[in-house]
């Protein structure tokens, strides 16, 4: 796990200037790689690569990057891990290759030389961001892994191409134009995170998951991404070959797949541990780790020692400790006060580089900080909800949509008259179905405007429905949720929602959160459930093996019951967030009031203050709980303030 960056200047940049710039860009990523660093400057053009290393595999100088291929054709910087590198090393040795050290980087270069880049990428199992300079073809290629676990930003301005693992590396270029993209800001306001391929800055993009982009002198202004692995195509292929075995047979296959996925992610030359919560996914990962370890696995949990400011119900540490005791792990827990948790909020803009508003960013950073005191690698359970139907919203959204469909079609137009006519029907909907989406009549009524299940789900995933009105002079850009025609073709709404989340919410929110929070403290996060073989198998399974008797992740639960008593597991999942709604009314009220004042909202003329002030006043008076949507505005305001 590391940080990479680089630039290619297409003007008469001096070598001294190029070196100064790449040094500055690389230094900004020190937190991602405190163990080592290096640069590469191409002799024949103004291209530079920079690297910061967090040594995980092969701690010797033989793992130093940038690294050249044996033939000298390629120069590469690589962030992440290729977990099957030992098998690939064996295959390369049989083909006549020899190796100086035992890093995965060296093996990757041999594979690229032997098979070419795209064929090699399909053989790599893991998470990675790659920058590859081909001296022979005079091309630079950037790559991102299948699910987007590792980030890759790139941008063009003037006569410059820049790229890096984080935006702070690009911003370190002295001529970087820090212009906020209003259209992207509107997408952020809608969802609380920025969907790929966009970034908050004009002219800067995220490389999509499962894609690469190649630049040469002739096409550097027009190059576009190429897909080498498609979540859509793999899901569609799996749906065409459904699993036909019994529950027991499916459980056996999943057990073997997950054991292998966990096992290869435990391989490292540094201490390895795991995050542990009171849910399903991380206990399952820990159970499979402990089943393959001769010593107690190190596990980490944070809890909250007070019940102030709404903290009651946000503490899973007690259940996590019981699971750890049953499995026999070497468990570490840290109890914090709500004041200690709130104290990290000022760090968020620097950690995330662009506005990001998932409130679980706070405990994720805190548990990463705790784990880093003892280990350098920590496994987590990300992916279980998206691949195995775990989110409660899959059930509540389906039920809510079915309820809305019972309203006569002429009354579902979303007009004021229609809303008034259907008010009794809307207010009669069970509260449990509306828990995720808010309790205001306006929030409920907006679902009437959805003409089909896909647009309904987009609205369901929305915090600010009219985000283009909240952000002035903004228009909606195309992205996954606005293009349901790109989703997997299945009539099942739950499967369509799961697919949309796998290619949208997961890479852009869940994995962004983990990468930035863990790397801020120089901790590598690994995700066994994000093994592409697990994803492909999950899509062969019928929905009944994912959601059964009102419970999601049915098959994961059955597997976990083999290792942990059911009584410890079958409890309501609390999530991993914090009660920002309560915090904003009390402990953070002065801070929020300053950032949400009319004067502050009018700064830079990004926002229309009226709808934001209205929600803030309703929230403070307890008329409605707008904590989540207000947190989104606050995280932009805090980011903007910190970036000036």
Explain this structure to me?
Strand 13, helix 9 and strand 14 (298-304) form a beta-alpha-beta unit. The protein has 644 residues and is of the alpha+beta class. The strands form 3 sheets. The protein has a 6-stranded antiparallel beta sheet. It has a 6-stranded antiparallel beta sheet with strand order 4-5-6-7-11-12, covered by helices on one side. A 5-stranded parallel beta sheet has the order 15-14-13-16-17, sandwiched between helices. The chain has 29 helices and 17 strands. Helix 3 packs across helix 4 (117-123), helix 9 (281-291) packs parallel to helix 23 (554-560) and helix 13 packs across helix 21 (493-519).
SSE arrangement:
Layout: E1 2-9, H1 15-27, E2 36-41, E3 46-53, E4 67-68, E5 74-82, H2 85-94, H3 104-115, H4 117-123, E6 126-134, E7 139-144, E8 153-157, E9 160-164, H5 167-171, H6 182-191, E10 204-206, E11 211-215, E12 226-227, H7 231-240, H8 247-264, E13 272-275, H9 281-291, E14 298-304, H10 317-327, E15 330-336, H11 338-342, H12 348-352, H13 361-372, E16 377-379, H14 384-388, H15 392-404, H16 416-427, H17 431-434, H18 441-445, H19 453-460, H20 467-470, H21 493-519, E17 524-526, H22 532-538, H23 554-560, H24 566-569, H25 580-585, H26 589-595, H27 598-602, H28 609-620, H29 627-643
Helix pairs in contact: 2-3, 3-4, 7-22, 8-23, 9-10, 9-23, 13-21
Which descriptors would you attach to this protein?
644 residues; alpha+beta; 17 strands; globular; single chain; six-stranded antiparallel sheet
């Amino acid at each position: 796990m590391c940080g990479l960056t680089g630039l290619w200047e297409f003007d008469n940049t001096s070598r001294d200037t190029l070196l100064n710039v790449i040094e500055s860009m690389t230094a900004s990523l020190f937190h991602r790689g405190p163990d080592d660093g290096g640069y590469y400057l191409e002799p024949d053009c103004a291209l530079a690569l920079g690297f910061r290393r967090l040594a995980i595999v092969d701690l010797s100088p033989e793992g130093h990057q940038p690294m050249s291929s044996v033939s000298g054709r390629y120069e590469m910087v690589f962030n992440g891990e290729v977990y099957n590198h030992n098998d690939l090393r064996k295959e390369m040795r049989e083909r006549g290759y020899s190796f100086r050290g035992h890093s995965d980087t060296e093996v990757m270069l041999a594979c690229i030389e032997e098979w070419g880049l795209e064929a090699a990428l399909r053989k790599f199992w893991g998470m990675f961001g790659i920058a590859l300079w081909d001296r022979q073809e005079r091309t630079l290629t950037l790559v991102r892994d299948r699910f987007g676990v590792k980030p890759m930003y790139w941008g063009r301005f003037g006569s410059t191409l820049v790229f890096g693992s984080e935006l702070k590396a690009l911003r370190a270029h002295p001529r970087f134009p820090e212009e906020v993209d209003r259209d992207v800001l509107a997408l952020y306001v809608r969802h609380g995170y920025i969907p790929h391929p966009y970034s908050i800055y004009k002219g800067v993009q995220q490389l999509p998951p499962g894609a690469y982009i190649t630049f040469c002198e002739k096409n550097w202004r027009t190059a576009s991404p190429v897909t080498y692995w498609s979540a859509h195509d793999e899901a569609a292929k799996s749906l065409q070959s459904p699993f036909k075995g019994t529950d027991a047979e499916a459980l056996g296959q999943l057990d073997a797949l997950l054991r292998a996925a966990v096992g290869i992610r435990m391989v490292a030359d540094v201490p390895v541990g795991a995050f542990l919560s009171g849910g399903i996914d991380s206990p399952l990962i820990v159970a499979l780790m402990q089943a393959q370890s001769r010593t107690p696995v190190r596990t980490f949990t944070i809890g909250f020692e007070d019940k102030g400011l709404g903290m009651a119900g946000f503490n899973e540490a007690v259940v996590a400790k019981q699971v750890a005791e049953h499995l026999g792990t070497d468990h570490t827990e840290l109890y914090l006060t709500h004041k200690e948790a709130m104290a990290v909020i000022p760090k968020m803009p620097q950690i995330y580089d662009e506005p990001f508003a998932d409130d679980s960013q706070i405990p994720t950073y805190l548990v990463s900080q705790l784990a880093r005191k003892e280990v350098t690698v920590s496994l987590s359970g990300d992916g279980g909800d998206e691949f195995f139907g775990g989110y409660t919203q899959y059930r509540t959204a389906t039920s809510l949509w079915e309820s809305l469909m019972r309203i006569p079609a002429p009354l579902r137009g979303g007009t004021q008259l229609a809303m008034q006519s259907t008010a009794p029907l809307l207010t009669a909907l069970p509260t449990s179905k509306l828990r995720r989406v808010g309790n205001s009549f306006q929030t409920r009524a907006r679902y009437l405007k959805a003409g089909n299940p896909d647009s309904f789900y987009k609205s369901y995933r929305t915090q600010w429905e009219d985000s283009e009105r909240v952000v002035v002079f903004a228009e909606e850009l195309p992205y996954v949720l606005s293009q349901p025609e790109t989703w997997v073709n299945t009539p099942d709404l739950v499967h369509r929602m799961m697919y949309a989340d796998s290619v949208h919410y997961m890479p852009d929110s869940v994995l962004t959160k983990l990468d930035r929070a863990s790397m801020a403290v120089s901790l590598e996060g690994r995700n066994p459930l994000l093994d592409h073989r697990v994803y492909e198998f999950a899509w062969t399974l019928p929905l009944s093996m994912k959601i059964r008797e009102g419970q999601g992740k049915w098959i994961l639960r059955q597997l976990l019951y083999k290792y942990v008593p059911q009584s410890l597991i079958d409890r309501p999942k609390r999530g991993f967030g914090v009660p920002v709604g309560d915090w904003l009314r009390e402990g953070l009220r002065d801070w929020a009031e300053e950032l949400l004042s009319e004067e502050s909202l009018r700064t830079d003329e990004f926002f229309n203050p009226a709808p934001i002030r209205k929600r803030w006043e309703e929230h403070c008076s307890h008329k409605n709980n707008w904590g989540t949507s207000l947190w989104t505005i606050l995280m932009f305001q805090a980011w903007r303030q910190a970036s000036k």
